[in-house]
Amino acid sequence: MSDTDDELVRVTINGKEIRAPGNLSTIQALWFAGYPRVKGVGCLEGVCGSCRILVRRKDSPEVAMALGCQTLIEDGMEVHFLVFPTPTHHAYQLDEIANSWEVQAQFHRIFPEAVHCRHCHGCDVSCPKGIEVEKGVELAGKGRFREASELFVACVMCDFCMTACPEHIAPNHLGLFARRVTAYFHIRPSNLISRLEELRRNEHPIRTD
Length: 209
Ligand code: SF4
Ligand code: SF4
Hints:
- By secondary structure, the protein is of the alpha+beta class.
- The protein folds into 2 domains: 3-81, Ubiquitin-like (UB roll) (Roll), CATH 3.10.20; 94-200, Fumarate Reductase Iron-sulfur Protein, Chain B, domain 2 (Orthogonal Bundle).
- The chain has helices at residues 3-6, 26-32, 42-45, 103-110, 122-126, 133-141, 145-151, 160-164, 171-184, 190-200; strands spanning 8-13, 16-21, 52-56, 63-67, 78-81.
- One iron/sulfur cluster is lined by residues 117-123, 133-134, 137, 164-167, 169, 171.
């Protein structure tokens, strides 16, 4: 082994033992070792956020979720790249929402699972960008789309939160919806829309007796 080899750190990536300089990201380490990985590397495929990895550090039982491009290799680290499809059944067309008065009702039609949030924190724990995903889901459910949209500004659509969610809420797509409608409409006051929604659902029947 040469002096140079002594300066390299040893990591296992997708089951392959690799030696590479410690200042490289997991993706760069693969390239350094001669593995020309492109699949699952978002910036090379045109969709940021797809370099999802599971990481276990030396002497730690904890497995963390992260992005391969942002994670520098450490000695003894184990890394697995995740490639999974990104299906979502939350299809909609913004121009089918007639005006901003309809946004909240349409949201609940498109994302009916949102009201079933268990507050399990799975989305928060899995998010490599540190986004308050669960809070965003709650805000959107209350029609506070502008506030929700601001929480999701740094989202890279890596799908970790979607995969983690036991209620199939697809929080990232919910966040995208919030960002889109905020840009598309001038949102009316959420408390007023909520009250009108309650009236529409006949939750405040008029008593005539
Ligand atoms: S909100 Fe979801 S999709 Fe966006 S970065 Fe966080 S985990 Fe990834
Ligand atoms: S993972 Fe799903 S159910 Fe759990 S807190 Fe997040 S949105 Fe709610």
